[in-house]
Recover the amino acids of this structure.
């Protein structure tokens, strides 16, 4: 089976070619900076040319950071448009599937090894379900996304969402003040505005400009040279800058509450997974216990959420691995349907 899979994000585009009928199987992978290319087609052409991939493909599955409607997608944080029809013509195959990036992360969950996850909350449903995983996955990176993975008796099916664009709902006095501050700048204040890479810097500015926490000149200078979210996160984890620590503590508090809200929308489920590029980098905050209380603070549903295992995906490629898994599943289902 020859598969082209991809995880297409606002920051990076990861592509992989897998050929299962070789011993050992062939797997080529490369990551491209999305901003360096005008279209996704340009990236795919560069990848195909680099690895001399000219034989017909059995299946293509690309995970994109945005909604997929009628086989077409416009990326939320990137000016790219792509369609299954266009890709099918380019790659000379009828087996092309575009899926949301969090849907892809969901499809990776059944094959995750123990060393690919960390336990944020043990829960009481720690034994492996006998009828398949039914899970919520929430990812935070360039933006915020969520998906629901369900077992259909013979195969998995994941449902996408645009949860990141739902309205931000404050849970305490500081967050109410944050919302008021943001509403002075924006007509709609979404969850993604605070739960994203840009959101970390937004929270930093709030604590600095609105609440008056003093800023380190060294941290400010460092942010002029590097990604502010990364600088803030690193200093918060190191514990050497109070403003950065308060920023990340607030980020985790809101993150946990939002994950709890999203879980309730899909409840009942038997697991919750945290994905995306930010969570693994702030794992010390997530594993400290700061996540579990706001996650389960849902009134009469508190005990229900406390019973759920919450796991942090630390694998670098869940979106890519999930796209490969979905491509294999769809190719096998198509073959069965043709018998």
């Amino acid at each position: 089976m020859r598969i082209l899979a991809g995880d297409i994000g606002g920051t990076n585009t990861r592509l992989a070619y897998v050929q299962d009928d070789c011993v050992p199987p062939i797997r080529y992978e490369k990551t491209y900076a999305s901003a360096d290319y005008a279209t996704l087609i340009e990236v795919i052409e560069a990848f195909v040319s680099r690895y001399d991939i000219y034989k017909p493909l059995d299946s293509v599955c690309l995970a994109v950071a945005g909604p997929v409607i009628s086989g077409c997608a416009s990326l939320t944080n990137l000016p790219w448009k792509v369609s299954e029809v266009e890709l099918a013509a380019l790659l000379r195959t009828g087996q092309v599937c575009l899926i949301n990036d969090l849907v892809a992360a969901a499809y990776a969950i059944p094959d995750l090894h123990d060393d690919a996850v960390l336990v944020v909350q043990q829960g009481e449903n720690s034994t492996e379900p006998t009828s398949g995983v039914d899970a919520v996955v929430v990812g935070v990176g360039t933006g915020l996304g969520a998906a629901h993975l369900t077992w259909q008796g013979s195969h998995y099916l994941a449902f996408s969402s645009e949860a990141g664009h739902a309205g931000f709902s404050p849970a305490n006095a500081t967050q109410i003040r944050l919302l008021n501050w943001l509403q002075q700048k924006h007509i709609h204040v979404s969850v993604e505005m605070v739960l994203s890479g840009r959101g970390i810097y937004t929270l930093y500015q709030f604590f600095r400009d609105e609440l008056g926490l003093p800023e380190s000149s060294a941290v400010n200078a460092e942010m002029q040279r590097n990604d502010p979210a990364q600088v803030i996160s690193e200093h918060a984890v190191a514990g050497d800058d109070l403003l950065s620590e308060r920023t990340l503590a607030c980020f985790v508090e809101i993150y946990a509450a939002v994950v709890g809200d999203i879980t309730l929308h899909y409840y009942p489920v038997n697991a919750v997974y945290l994905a995306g590029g930010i969570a693994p980098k702030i794992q010390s905050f997530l594993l400290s216990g700061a996540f579990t209380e706001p996650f389960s603070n849902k009134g009469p549903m508190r005990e229900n959420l406390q019973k759920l295992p919450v796991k942090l995906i630390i694998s670098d490629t869940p979106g890519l691995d999930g796209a490969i898994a979905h491509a294999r599943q769809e190719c096998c289902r198509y073959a069965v349907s043709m018998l």
